[in-house]
Design a protein that fits this description.
The two termini are 40 Å apart. By secondary structure, this protein is α+β, with helices and mostly antiparallel strands. The chain has helices at 23-36, 83-89, 139-150, 159-162, 187-194, 200-205, 257-264, 279-283, 314-323, 326-334, 364-374, 391-405, 418-426, 444-451, 465-475, 480-497, and strands at residues 15-16, 19-20, 63-68, 97-99, 105-107, 110-117, 120-125, 165-172, 175-180, 218-224, 228-233, 247-252, 270-271, 289-304, 339-340, 381-386, 410-415, 432-436, 500-512, 516-517, 533-534. The chain has a domain at 297-507: Dipeptide-binding Protein, domain 3 (Roll). The strands form five sheets. Strands 3, 10, 11, 12, 13, 14, 15, 16, 17, 18 and 19 form an eleven-stranded mixed β-sheet that branches. A four-stranded antiparallel β-sheet has the order 6-7-9-8, covered by helices on one side. Helix 10 (326-334) crosses helix 12, helix 14 (444-451) runs antiparallel to helix 15 (465-475) and helix 15 packs antiparallel against helix 16. Strand 16 (381-386), helix 12 (391-405) and strand 17 (410-415) form a beta-alpha-beta unit.
Length: 536
């Protein structure tokens, strides 16, 4: 699962208000991201214009209501796991660095950074940021944030992202040094993915799971469970001309006709997903804006719990892998939108390896033979968790159930609400489930965090020493080409073992009211509303 995100649907190319971005430009940006963590040069982004259209002056004021697919569960960035919360608190917190829609690492609280040597980095920090509790932001907040993440008492599932950080050193009030135990290729992408900076006083004096306090463009106002979360403009934001909006409200709405009706009625002004059967209606409407991208999305996959029967049996997992017809899933669950997946990144990614041990499938005869070899009793019912809130994942589960029954397995489809599913997934209280992951900025985000043995976000419980060794070497290399080779080695082992079976790669799409401007899609799939405004 890993920052869980709602299914979204693409068209062929990125479109916003009639403008089309080329796939070549998108992939160039993705390639830039792939080497960002390896640079040994100083980069001062203050010399560059904003990649998000910073030259455009928006209209200040107004309220925007955004419809998201899930409900928030925990607003503490160190311990949160649900994507709906990330969508919200991404506007409350700031990070040292972020990623723009072209896949480039860009500044937030850091104004510039230097790789001093293979195992240390220095970051210059803004001197005008203030937390929403009135505390000034300094390098001490950076140190506290990452010390807290790496403290076992915090039980942060993101600690593996920063495990190579041996210490964070306060060099000056607005300069900080990260000391590493060895070169760490994904450092900048890890900071951009889960590096939200918190304040010690705020964490200790409030409940960070319920009351987020950051330096971001919007401050937390209220959270009415199962209804809405309200944020207001932070007047002391370190970018003095942002945000434009006075108020930002998040509501959880199902991915069906009701959210489109709410959008058309101006009850909400932005939605994070559109049902597949309504894409054409939205893109052809002169009264709605639509945006999609080919470099921002998420892999859908089947997760098989390897820690207990029946899928602690590798042959049974392999039988499932040979039974799955991914092209049928693409057609029946996704209406031929998106692409068949065989790994965590899309085929256009510079990290794509092409490893696919089940590429000749489906092969029902081989699948039946593996079931027989596994010793599994086919009269035993297998429970498949599904998510009815997400229509395409629900249909995927239905297709998978049918395909497994064709090889003689009995499958019970158990539909659960997303928060219940999340709890069962985290606690490995399942047999097989549809799953997905948001915002993969670096292959390490998926492969190491979810498939390396013993990691806290490894919800399949999978472990293989050969795969672990390759993943560790890839993590601690700053050579992108070598890292890609190592991921191919790891995938050759992992995919054959089949703790996960990739089924589909989804791309993001947003729809919005015609009064809304400044919308952008980020490869991290974070929502950044500081540059969004509404026309009167």
């Amino acid at each position: 699962m890993n920052d869980q995100a709602p299914p979204r649907r693409p068209t062929t190319s990125p479109i916003i208000r009639g403008r089309t971005a080329t796939r070549r430009a998108v992939l160039k940006g993705a390639a830039a991201l792939g080497v960002a963590g390896a640079t040994g040069r100083r980069w001062d982004p203050r010399a560059r214009a904003s990649a998000a259209g910073g030259m455009v002056q928006g209209t200040p004021g107004g309220t925007l209501t955004a419809a998201i697919t899930g409900q928030p569960d925990n607003m503490d960035p160190a311990t949160n796991v649900g994507y709906a919360s990330v969508q919200i608190f991404g506007n409350v917190f700031s990070k040292l660095v972020d990623v723009n829609e072209r896949g480039e690492i860009v500044p937030q609280l850091a104004t510039a950074w230097t790789q001093v040597d293979g195992a240390s980095w220095e970051f210059d920090l803004v001197d005008n940021a203030v937390f929403h509790n009135g505390e000034p932001f300094t390098a001490r907040d950076v140190k506290y944030t990452f010390d807290r993440i790496n403290d076992p008492a915090t039980a942060s599932s993101f600690a593996p992202l920063f495990a190579p950080v041996t210490s964070v050193e306060v060099v000056a009030d607005h300069k900080v040094r990260f000391n590493l135990d060895q070169p760490y290729g994904p450092l900048l992408s890890s900071l951009a993915a889960r590096g939200q900076i918190v304040n010690q006083k705020a964490v200790e004096e409030t409940d960070p799971k319920r009351t987020p306090i950051g330096t971001g463009p919007f401050k937390f106002v209220e959270w009415v469970p199962d209804d809405h979360v309200t944020l207001d403009r932070w007047d002391r934001y370190f970018r003095p001309d942002r945000p434009y909006l006075d108020r930002l409200v998040f509501r959880g709405l199902p991915v069906d006709q009701t959210r489109l009706a709410a959008l058309e009625a101006d009850e909400v002004q932005w939605v994070d997903a559109i049902p597949l059967n309504l894409i054409e209606q939205v893109t052809s409407s002169p009264d709605l804006g639509f945006l999609t991208s080919t470099n921002a999305g998420l892999p859908d996959y089947l997760a098989l719990n390897t820690t207990k029967p029946p899928f602690d049996n590798a042959k049974l997992r392999q039988a499932v892998a040979w039974a799955i017809d991914r092209n049928a899933i693409l057609q029946l669950a996704y209406s031929n939108v998106g692409e068949v997946a065989n790994e965590a990144v899309p085929s256009g990614s510079p990290w794509y390896t092409g490893v696919d041990p089940y590429g000749a499938g489906p092969d029902q005869d081989r699948a039946r033979q593996l079931v027989a070899e596994s010793g599994f009793d086919p009269t035993t019912t297998i429970e498949l968790l599904s998510l009815p809130q997400y229509p395409e994942l629900q249909r995927t589960a239905e297709v998978v159930k049918d395909q497994l029954e064709q090889i003689g397995l009995k499958v019970d489809l158990k539909q659960v609400e997303v928060t219940i599913w999340l709890d069962q997934f985290i606690n490995k209280d399942y047999q097989i489930t549809t799953a997905y992951q948001q915002g993969i900025l670096d292959p390490d985000d998926f492969y190491y965090l979810t498939l390396h043995g013993g990691e806290p976000r490894n919800f399949t419980g999978y472990a293989n020493p050969r795969a672990d060794a390759a993943l560790e070497q890839a993590r601690f290399s700053d050579d992108p080409a070598r890292r890609k080779e190592l991921y191919a080695e790891a995938l050759t082992v992992i995919l054959d073992d089949a703790p996960v079976i990739f089924t589909h790669y989804e791309l993001v799409n947003y729809a919005f009211h015609p009064s809304v401007n400044g919308v952008a899609i980020l490869p991290s799939m974070d929502l950044r509303f500081e540059d969004v405004w509404r026309e009167p």
